[in-house]
Design brief:
Helix 4 packs parallel to helix 5, helix 7 packs across helix 8 and helix 8 packs across helix 10. The N and C termini lie far apart (about 80 Å). About 25% of the residues lie in helices and about 25% in strands. The protein has three domains: about 40 residues; about 200 residues, P-loop containing nucleotide triphosphate hydrolases (Rossmann fold), CATH 3.40.50; about 170 residues, 2-Layer Sandwich (Ribosomal Protein S5, domain 2). The protein is built from eleven helices and 20 strands. The strands form four sheets. The chain has a nine-stranded mixed sheet, with helices on both faces. A six-stranded mixed sheet has the order 15-16-14-13-17-20, with helices on both faces. The longest helix has 18 residues. By secondary structure, the protein is of the alpha/beta class. It binds thymidine-5'-diphosphate and magnesium ion. The site of thymidine-5'-diphosphate has 16 residues, from helix 2 and helix 3. Thymidine-5'-diphosphate (TYD) binds next to helix 2 and helix 3. InterPro entries: AAA+_ATPase, DNA_repair_RadA, P-loop_NTPase, RecA_ATP-bd, Ribosomal_Su5_D2-typ_SF, Ribsml_uS5_D2-typ_fold_subgr, Rubredoxin_2. Pfam families: AAA_25, Zn_ribbon_LapB. Keywords: ATP-binding, DNA damage, DNA repair, DNA-binding, Hydrolase, Metal-binding, Nucleotide-binding, Stress response, Zinc, Zinc-finger. One of its GO terms (molecular function) is zinc ion binding.
Length: about 450
């Protein structure tokens, strides 16, 4: 009997089955069986010891490590995130939720590269050739002249894709998206864990052989739970995450992993009619849009190594619901819960009978403890109906700092760079752990003495 070409391996216990089962017969876990190509029968077999010839280790000092010149895409923020451009032969995973602008960004990059005389290839399994052309037309007229010159292949069969990459030998190739390609010898549907791993692995083989840099596009759902891109993170050289709210114009591009650069940086883009435009003065824009109303405060956040000023808004309104609503966008729900608890317990701002909404303006996501104080001040100011800095302050107030469980304020990294950024944009008062040791003191400094003692109704 012919050996089956694939096996199903439990991703938890390693149990193997010829057929797929919903529940692993080995460890009884559900939905853990993943289809993989069957291992080679002999020679490189698993149990055999020292079957191959011994390799010769080389002292690292004696290794030639030629720094291949990077391929700059011409999109400044993208190049910066990659550490100075695309590394030839590297594999980059670009993740993000649908509609965020992944295809736009990759088409722009290839268009600019093609325009600069590089060999490129765009492989799309998602859209028809006509749809891609329409996008390219918009981009050609806008920020990426050269977009219409990109060689394009609309294909979902992995074998054809690999053969095309082999034949065309592009310097940079985009695969949009890794979840739409399927290897014919696996029975699983495109997008399943087994397929995604197989597709990425085989593309990587071909790419490394031909020194082709590949940008794999992958969809991630909001919670990142979808089977797919996550399983590739260990395989690729660089993981870029495209974030933001689809309905808003601002997008942030973040490096989650980078073998050839830092993971500290963030690029801010704006989606316009002719494509994505880099926002180099993000702080200036967010500050200009900041209001002076109660419930608004400017947070001096750090996006990697760059300070970024964003407006945090809060609304506190009486509620009939038990428990009342806690809605937030751009910050972590649990962080908000903690801040509300400390506000109530240590600073006399109770919100137990009110709905609380907190929003980071512009669709930016802030994931750092330094945001605590800004959230607390926005909520307190909203609860009391008093603008930060007092009624007659003309510029928005700025805050940053971590809040401890006992109501103390804790210093956060890059204190100076945050205050410098606030000063640069003329923000009047900056409330930080340096100014106030506790949350209560910060409230007094920000809302004035009288309100420090008043309670939220
Ligand atoms: P897209 O790149 O297709 O998203 P993804 O590949 O991540 O799913 O683009 C998403 C949105 O961007 C789409 O709603 C249309 C909009 N868009 C613009 O606003 N301007 C443009 O120039 C282009 C090409 C797209
Ligand atoms: Mg797309």
């Amino acid at each position: 009997m012919a050996r089956p070409a694939t096996v199903h391996i439990c991703s938890q216990c390693g149990h193997q089955e010829a057929k797929w089962h919903g529940q692993c017969p080995g460890c009884r876990a559900w939905n853990t069986l993943v289809e993989e190509r069957a291992p080679e029968p002999a020679g490189r077999g698993r149990g055999l010891r020292a079957a191959g010839a011994a390799g010769t280790p080389v002292r690292l000092r004696d290794l030639a490590a030629d720094q291949a010149p990077r391929i700059p895409t011409g999109i400044g923020e993208l190049d910066r995130l990659l550490g100075g451009g695309i590394v030839p032969g590297s594999l980059v995973l670009l993740g993000g939720s649908p509609g965020i602008g992944k295809s736009t960004l990759t088409t722009m990059a290839l268009g600019l590269l093609q325009g600069a005389g590089r060999r490129t290839l765009y492989i799309s399994g998602e859209e028809s050739a006509a749809q891609i052309r329409l996008r390219a037309e918009r981009l050609e007229a806008g920020s990426a002249p050269g977009a219409l010159d990109i060689p394009m292949l609309a294909e979902t069969d992995l074998a054809t894709v690999l053969a095309t990459m082999e034949a065309e030998r592009p310097e940079v190739c985009v695969v949009d998206s890794v979840q739409t390609l399927a290897a014919g010898d696996l029975t699983g549907a495109a997008g399943t864990v087994g397929q995604v791993r197989e597709v990425a692995g085989r593309i990587m083989e071909v790419a490394k052989r031909n020194d082709t840099a590949v940008i794999l596009v992958g969809h991630v759902t909001k919670d990142g739970a979808l089977a797919g891109p996550r399983v590739l993170e260990h395989l690729v050289d660089c993981v870029l995450q495209f974030e933001g709210e689809k309905e808003r114009t601002y997008r942030t591009l973040r490096a989650l992993k980078n073998r050839f650069g830092s993971t500290n940086d963030v690029g801010v883009f704006e989606m316009r009619d002719g494509g994505l435009v880099e926002v180099l003065d993000a702080s200036a824009r967010f500050v200009a849009e900041a209001t002076r109303a109660p419930g608004s405060v400017v947070l001096a956040a750090m996006e990697g190594s760059r300070p970024l000023l964003v407006e945090v808004q809060a609304l506190v309104s009486p509620s009939e619901l038990v428990p009342p609503r806690r809605v937030c966008a751009g910050i972590d729900r649990n962080r908000l819960a903690l801040v509300l608890a400390v506000l109530a317990r240590h600073a006399g701002v109770g919100t137990g009978t009110a709905d609380v909404f907190v929003n980071v303006v512009g669709g930016v996501r802030v994931d750092e403890p330094g945001a605590d104080l800004a959230i607390a001040l926005a909520v307190a100011s909203a609860a009391r109906g008093v603008p930060l800095g007092g009624e007659d302050a003309r510029v928005p107030a700025c805050a940053f700092g971590e809040i401890g469980l006992t109501g103390e304020l804790r210093t956060v990294a890059h204190h100076d760079r945050r205050t410098d950024e606030a000063a640069k944009f003329g923000l009047g008062i900056v409330i930080s752990p340096d100014v106030a040791p506790t949350l209560r003191a910060a409230l007094t400094a920000a809302l004035g003495r009288a309100s420090g003692a008043r309670r939220a109704a």
